[in-house]
Design goal:
- Keywords: Coiled coil, Metal-binding, Zinc, Zinc-finger.
- GO terms for molecular function: ubiquitin protein ligase activity; zinc ion binding.
- This is B box-type domain-containing protein.
- One of its GO terms (cellular component) is nucleoplasm.
- By secondary structure, the chain is an alpha+beta fold.
- The chain has three domains: 74 residues, no CATH class; 130 residues; 295 residues, 6 Propeller (Neuraminidase), CATH 2.120.10.
- Helices cover 25% and strands 29% of the residues.
- The strands form eight sheets. The chain has a four-stranded antiparallel beta sheet, with no helix packed on it. The protein has a four-stranded antiparallel beta sheet with strand order 8-9-10-11, with no helix packed on it.
- Strand 25 and strand 26 form a beta hairpin.
- The protein is elongated.
Length: 552
């Protein structure tokens, strides 16, 4: 039975793994219980404590009680038995021949060894290789960060030195000009003073001579009474500006913290490939603009594998092609309906949430206004809605008093999942007006002040607060429309600041779209060719923006 008991616990303490076996008593022992086993007898028995691999074969395995060769193994008691043991009339125990038990245990042991060598060992080696690759990437990343900060510091120093040189040059020019003005005026006054003195001496000589020369004398006093123009000169000053750390931080840049998210081992490889998707972002540019005629709180969604989109405002929904041509209009009576959000299914059927009727509805044909009610809610009013990759509906909803909010996953009209609280039983959402699903199945919600992301099981992953530490915007982060692209980027409208934020699937900020003259961006969607469709509040303009260099 060599190796048959390798995975069992100690027969005395029942807790520690057995490292030895007493061949005399056939008892598995951990290293802490060996001494207790040997000493707990009257000294008449000589115990043979050996490693499992060194134990004797089954032919020499003796019964503890009867000193006979064991021929039967009891799976219930997990011990070998002799013929005398069997005579004790053991009932309802699972008994097998000892040779069969050995073969069974050896087969199990071989399977364990096979798993260790062919699955677990290479699996761990692969994980180590991936983690070492990740470590290398992180070291390289942090080295690049240090180099970038050093370069930025040198640029700031150079800019500061250049500014100091300019101020110093200007101060020297001011000094030169002021000194020249003062010197020239002093010289002119001194010349006049010398002329006054000379004129006084001439007058004295004429007066002493008392002759006719006084008749030809011409007075210069009138000239001297015209004193050269004087001036008051206020000295040039330098007033040191107040050094504001926040402004220095804005000029120097932002250093974000690392974010770690636990993942199951099988996802390690795929996640490494998504570490640096910022390289796929290019400078955003507007490629098309069209007028929709829909201005109030508009919503937009692009159709799958089609260059078409739906735009909703109030109870009116229009379908546009990529040239801005209206292909169809779906209109409801405003006194009966209050539409909140729109989405499309995989077969491009329009779905909308009706807050007034507390329902989710499907429009199979926008041209003839045929509508099918899919879901009716009780005690809750629907807000945002999106269609998942499995053609399930994710619906955000709220109670009438606004105190409770949640995300519910539906298949047809059946509830599959409800997401409302985190692992500390605290509410996740306060006003979930927009929702989307990422390609990694995370659920992204644009809430009152934050973007809240949970995984497919509803476990909280992170909250994005709008990168407030940048301090570059006068208005607080005001998230509205949210969408995810093929590279798991999360894009969210910042309504009050007229920009769009782009973050990755882990919540790391990547960049802003702030160069496309956006006005109160309300909602956005991604087309089949990775173009971004954006609509703004109080304007009927639909802008199509290219921001990815990635080619799907």
């Amino acid at each position: 039975m060599s190796g048959a008991q390798d995975s069992v616990n100690c027969g005395l303490c029942k807790e520690e793994a057995a490292e030895r076996i007493c061949e005399t008593c056939n008892v598995n022992l951990c290293k802490n219980c060996i001494g207790r086993h040997v000493t707990n007898n009257d000294g008449s028995t000589s115990h043979s404590i050996v490693k499992h691999k060194d134990r004797k074969s089954s032919e020499d395995l003796q019964c503890v009680d009867h000193k006979q060769i064991c021929v039967i193994f009891c799976n219930t008691c997990n011990r070998a038995l002799c013929q005398s043991c069997l005579a004790l009339n053991i009932h309802k125990h699972q008994l097998v021949e000892i040779s069969s038990a050995i073969r069974s245990r050896l087969a199990t042991l071989d399977k364990e060894t096979e798993e260790l060598e062919q699955s677990l060992e290479p699996g761990y080696e692969k994980i180590i290789l991936e983690l070492e690759t990740l470590l290398s990437l992180q070291k390289k990343c942090h080295a690049e960060i240090q180099e970038k900060m050093k370069e930025q510091g040198n640029r700031l120093k150079q800019a500061l030195n250049t500014m100091i040189d300019q101020y110093s040059k200007q101060a020297k020019e001011n000094e030169k000009r002021d000194i020249e003005d003062c010197t020239n005026l002093i010289s002119k006054i001194k010349n006049n003073l010398e002329a006054i003195r000379q004129s006084a001496e001439v007058n004295k000589d004429i007066s002493k001579s008392k002759n006719a020369q006084v008749l030809t004398h011409i007075s210069k006093n009138e000239t001297f009474r015209e004193i050269p123009a004087l001036f008051e000169l206020t000295a040039s000053t330098f007033s040191p500006g107040k050094i504001i750390p926040e402004q220095l931080q804005d000029m120097f840049g932002e250093l974000s913290k690392s974010m770690k998210k636990n993942k199951k081992p099988q996802f390690i490889i795929s996640n490494i490939n998504l570490l640096e998707n910022e390289d796929c972002l290019k400078t955003p540019e507007i490629i098309r603009v069209c007028e929709t005629g829909l201005k109030v709180s508009p919503k937009v969604c692009c159709l799958h594998k089609s260059k078409k989109c739906f735009v909703r405002s109030g109870v009116n929904i229009k379908c546009f092609d990529d040239k801005g041509k209206v292909l169809g209009i779906h209109a409801l009576k405003p006194e009966n309906h209050f539409l909140i959000d729109i989405t499309v299914t995989s077969d491009n059927h329009l779905v909308y949430s009706d807050n007034r009727e507390r329902s989710i509805n499907k429009v199979k044909n926008i041209e003839d206004n045929r509508t099918e009610r899919v879901i009716t809610l009780n005690g809750w009013k629907p807000l945002a809605v999106c269609c998942s990759s499995k053609d399930e509906l994710l619906v955000t909803m709220q109670t009438d008093d606004g105190k409770e909010n949640k995300v519910v996953r539906f298949k047809d009209s059946n509830v599959l999942q409800e997401i409302q609280y985190n692992d500390q039983d605290k509410a996740l959402y306060s006003n979930p007006l927009f929702v989307c699903e990422n390609t990694n199945f995370d659920i992204c919600v644009s809430d009152w002040d934050d973007v809240i992301v949970v995984d497919s099981s509803g476990e909280f992953m992170f909250a994005y607060n709008g990168n407030r530490e940048l301090r570059r915007f006068k208005n607080k982060f005001n998230p509205r429309g949210i969408v995810c692209d093929a590279l798991q980027h999360i894009l969210v409208c910042d309504f009050l600041n007229n920009i769009i934020h782009i973050i990755n699937h882990n919540g790391h900020f990547l960049r802003f779209i702030d160069n496309c003259d956006l006005y109160c961006p309300q909602d956005l969607s991604i087309s089949c060719n990775n173009e971004l469709y954006v609509v703004g509040n109080s304007t009927d303009i639909l802008k199509v923006i290219s921001y990815l260099s990635y080619d799907s």
